[in-house]
Fold Aspartate carbamoyltransferase.
Amino acid sequence: HRHLLGINGLTELDIAFLLDKADQAVKLSRQREKKTSTLRGLTQINLFFEASTRTQASFELAGKRLGADVMNMSVGNSSVKKGETLIDTAMTLNAMHPDILIVRHASAGACALLAQKVGCSVVNAGDGAHEHPTQALLDALTIRREKGRIAGLTVAICGDVLHSRVARSNIILLSALGARIRVVAPSTLLPAGIERMGVEVFHDMTEGLRDADVVMMLRLQRERMSGSFVPSVREYFRYFGLDAQKLNAAKPDALVMHPGPMNRGVEIASEIADGPQSVIEEQVEMGVAVRMAVMETLLLSDNQEPAK
Ligand code: CP
């Protein structure tokens, strides 16, 4: 079975194939009749051990638009509450013969572990601070549709890079497609050795955003911090929150992106999130299309031919 566990391991060709396929899915999703029978007869289970709005909803819609039967496991009401482990939970669902499991978990590597155990395709919907591959694909699709290319663009990824699987997947993907990546953050919110990923590091927003084509803001993940390492919201916004003055340093037509969920007034000012340069809602739309492209690619290559 084929899996999507991370951007690491995908070639430039794989990525281009998925983005082209997702472009087709955008067209379908904008029609009145959105449903196809591409995955008819196949079963998709969404298994989310962490909260989600965008990823879970878009995987569910993506599966339904492809004609699959989609089940959302509500982990909060499941036997996980009674102490059942991740693997036992997954093996229990595996016994019901799903064709694809979409998994989000707080631990890095959880999806890769499950992929070795279950008898179906697995998609990583976010594992700890490791990877969130479909988010990076939808971000790349948004950029490509807006700018016509990715190669040669300067992308500034700003904020809590330390805790961000979105940043990690985007650095790998956008670098592979030829973008220049900058990270802009206080040193306490950067992983040690981030330079080894081939990024330029800045600690000042105006410097880091200078002439950028894309400004990607990240949520301050306060729930993953403790004690004196939790910055004060007021101070954080003053130095690292995206407002009109800081955005002025980027190119006048720079895109403003945020994977969501966003904290208005913490990492981004409301007027910027809702402003003319923001493509945050387009990112959400691209999320459904990218997830359709990913599931169709994994499952059709498994089954060789579409369901009749
Ligand atoms: N961007 C993202 O993964 O959002 P959710 O946590 O709402 O799925």
Remarks:
- The chain is about 40% helix and 15% strand.
- The chain has a mean pLDDT of 94.
